[in-house]
Amino acid sequence: MKTLAAYIEDLLRFLRERDMNPPSFTEVMVIDSMKGSSVSESYFAELLSRGYRWVNVSYRGIYEGKLIVGIEYPEKTYPGGITTSVNLSGPSNLVVNKGWKLNSHSIRMDL
Question: Which pTM was predicted?
């Protein structure tokens, strides 16, 4: 199974291939967009094994020098051997137009 770090690398490559050229960052913070909590490699692997039809890995923007990546998934699961599709999404146009930066109100975190 592919790791969360590998999907983040794919996401950054996806953006560069489209000449979007995201700014540099000092670290990566991955957030469960449904719960507002941080996401670890093991939690991501668990999400992929729960039976969701898809999981979205989304470039949210840069906050205080950190790349914020959101993880989204549907509410319904289909247990029993379904293969979860992992989708990659770039930032919204609003974020790009603001220099890829997020403000604290753009991030829902209960860390």
Answer: 0.88
